[in-house]
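Slide 14.
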Amino acid sequence: MKKTISIVFLFLLTISSFAQQEKGITGFENWLSPWTDFKPIKTEYNEPNQILSGTISTNAKLLKKHTYLLLGKVYVTNNASLTIEPGTVIIGDYESKGALIITKGASLIADGSQTDPIVFTSNRSVKKSGDWGGVIILGDAPINRLGGVASVNLDSNGVLTSFGGNNSSSNSGILRYVRIEFAGAKSKEYGEFNGLLLAGVGSKTILENIMVSYATGDSFEVLGGEVTLKKAISYRCSKDDFKFNYGAQSILDNSIAIRSPFLTNNLGSRCLHAVSYDKRDEVDFSKKMTKVLATNITLVNNSQDIRNDVNTGLVREAIYVGENTSIELNKSVISGFNPAVILQNTIAINDENLNKIKFKEMYFNLCKGNIFIENNSNNEDLENWYGNAAFFNVYSNGQYKDTFIDSANEKTPDFRLSIDKITASKND
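Slide 15: predicted structure.
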């Protein structure tokens, strides 16, 4: 690693530090308030008085006045629409690993509000990660698997859980102002669930202001399709916060992943994991490979002593990028990782590949190294490339209290950059 020279940037601004930020999550006010819950373990809900089970094959509506128990795998089928009123609470059953599965052609209309979010949570008295299954939405937008379809294999023959097709603009409904807590159960029969799985979901689906907390699997997993996620929050996930695969064409905007160095998965735990396939022999290379455009995102390791956690190996990389995958991060913040980015070791360092992997106007803070090839400690070529002044990337070693407006707030942290305080350094 080359010697670091500190350069102080003076921000001659007439606006206050609480005004809209240029990098990382942005907004004139902290949009994480008031619909989120950063202490869901302590939040209590009414006992369920309605049960959801089996198959929902006709249009149905869940009402705020009831509390629902999600018993086992509940399928919405037959092009039906399940509508959930703002403020409704759905409790996933621990014993049966309750899960809500929106099958291909069906839709979920979960349109909450800032003051009345829709909540999916656990029914255990002491809630823990992986208590119940999660929410799964399956659509008929394109994927790059051979044959154009795949299955998440939650049913015995894969028919109910198939996804993929040719309708890139399909509509699987609305998720807005929704919280999904303590999901990601592990099943001996079917493997691991995620908080929210979006498989073959089309571009007309609205996905905004969604918080996934304490997921054992991934918080958000996108398999193929054309998905736009806005104001998405992943909080204290054990695996990947945002995962993209199977040729996903995705936009991630104004979103945040808040990790804990003490929550990891032996298969890898990253804020953003972007690949185009798991196995090359499963891929139709005439189809689109995964492409992710991420703007104004914040990826942060929330630690009391981030430098120590990085140096002792509790913290790993924030982003992993696989071969034949395009990813572009703009105006985003990566804070407290070791290193910031790792590229798969099969990616050749040349203009063609680096033009598909872009980091522009970034703010790298408290990272032990920035961008590396997997299993290779020599990153001089990558540092020279991404350190070029044309990318306008900034490097810093600022403490969180100086970097963010109010990251220590336990009720509603504010991870917008405190732009009148930050001190930057640049590799030279």
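Speaker note: Helices lie at 306-311, 351-354, 380-386, 400-403.
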